[in-house]
Specification:
Elements (H helix, E strand, L loop, with lengths): L5 H15 L3 H12 L7 E3 L3 H5 L8 H14 L3 E3 L2 H8 L6
Parallel strand pairs: 1-2
Helix pairs in contact: 1-4
Amino acid sequence: MRDPDMEVMARKVYEHVTRSAQRLVPTAEAIEREYGIPITNKRISVTPISMIAAASHASDVTPLALALDRAAREVGVDFIGASPRSCTRASARPTGA
């Protein structure tokens, strides 16, 4: 998904998220019906966008934010983003011995 062109990168991120999560909400709704338990938050966690954006030297990452927002609306989730824990886990990986 990385690309030196921010607009191209935003398009790739949008396409990847919508393709990967296209069945998330319908699947969650089927589970709700089957078990009678409401799933109140349907969320997508993504790699910290700063890691992806680093491939571009663009100073404005607004196109990525807008692409994620559009993707969230498209698939019908409540939230899309990276949690602080995922950032911590990614930076805390051992580099090898």
